Amino acid sequence: MKEGLFHIPDSSTDEAYLIGSKCRVCGYVAFPKKVICPACVRDDTMEEAPIGKKANIASFALMGQAPKGFTAPYFQAMVRLEEGITIATTLTDCELKEDAVEMGQPVELVITKIKVDDQGNDIIAWKYRPLTKK
Amino acid sequence: MREVAIIGVGMHKFGKFPNESLKDLGRVAVWNAIHDANIEAHDIQTAYVGNAGAGLLTGQECVRGQVILNDACIFSVPVTNVEGACASGLIALREAWIAVGSGMYDVALALGVEKMYIDDTAKVLQVLGAGTDMESVGSIGYQFSGGYAQGIQQNMRRYGWTREDLALVAVKNKYNGARNPYAQFQKETTVEEVLNSRVVAYPVTIFMTAPIGDGAAAAIICPKEMASKFTSKPPIIIKAMAMHSPGFRDYRLPPREPDTTKREVSSLSAREAYETVGIGPDDVELAEVHDAMTPAELSTYASLGFCKPGEGNILVREGRTSLTGDIPVNTSGGLSARGHPIGATGLAQAAEIVWQLRGEAGPRQIPGKSGKGPRIGLIENNGGTVGSGAAVSTVSIFMRD
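Above: the input entities. Below: the structure tokens describing the complete assembly.
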């Protein structure tokens, strides 16, 4: 993965977050971070922002087959970050059956191994861990 | 813009062809189109080639079109490669249409070609992920089948669509594919069989998905006035090819609520195409739509204005989109039955509309509203996902002169 997408905690008190950006004029939040605010369409208003620690499940699908580097079954999901935007992710630390998660369920960010690349290296990125059902 | 006619179409059968290369697939489609148009190869003055995955799947990253067309002996013409994931084929045709419409060239070739079967499903699924932003979507496990499944689940909850409704679309399209000699699957199926097949991403089962396969499709176009110089077949006029890359939508706006008070064309490309031609959804006599997961057809009906949002299931239950219905959809079998070698799909859809409008569709020929064969056909073809929607959305309208 490219650098600058997420922060890996470096101590027990440090928290993981995604590196997004926020427009200081209109408040638009983007992930990955953007230089140009898509709402204002200007290039001098976006500022880096730590986002995505908490979210809830907007939609999900239990995948029966996996692309290279991933293992089926796994949950693919769209999660709505507390900052408002919806991003694509996979879920972790939950049962792999259809009714294990539900829409609206709170989830928290985990920076962890998501797949193995073509050379067999572990690739680290974001996943979300379901918390108690709503 | 001059009026432009399609005078020839050709395909290489869709399916798994381990012993055929990109060149073999492309050559067959191109020469079938040349013979269909009754032109000589040297009549072609410019060419556009649509392909999506050859770089990652075969290693032919650069000069794809040039390699294929050199093998097909289409020499000394400008060859332009275009890419737009699953919409690559129609983008090629659209560029050719603009080139001829502008007056720059008289005879143009558009080819869509894809070699996907490499006996490694996981690798192909990885490559399909490249139809998204690889930085934040394609590389983290996102699959289109899962994306479609999430949208379909939402519609089942919102509109009360049943699993049987979803299966009915697959049954209809497999029935049509069984009557198409170019289709990858030529076998009918049943609701039971569809629902009992392996779950890919609930509620989508393997019988509802487009298969991995190889194939090619091509079209030859010229100014309408010139068509009779080459062929005695009725020229099929390209009336509109609307294309958008929708992209940005502000998440702070209220979610799009479908307008249920009137028949609404919700796709920007569809609205533009209808306005360009000066017709409405009621005038369309058949459509080829992008059913990479067949149940997606149900929402496409509404996007195109064939029904109100959420009522797509009623159309399919009543058989209105079957071969014998008033608005047959995916007479070719669609992506799930005809197959979906992604860069070839748009031109295969175009070929089907041309055959239907000419009355050449054999056992799947529809009578049209007049009973004397259809005159107006529509194609919806889209590719990839970027931002809040399709990376490329196209709607085209063809008309028999």
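Note for the figure: The radius of gyration of chain B is 20 Å.
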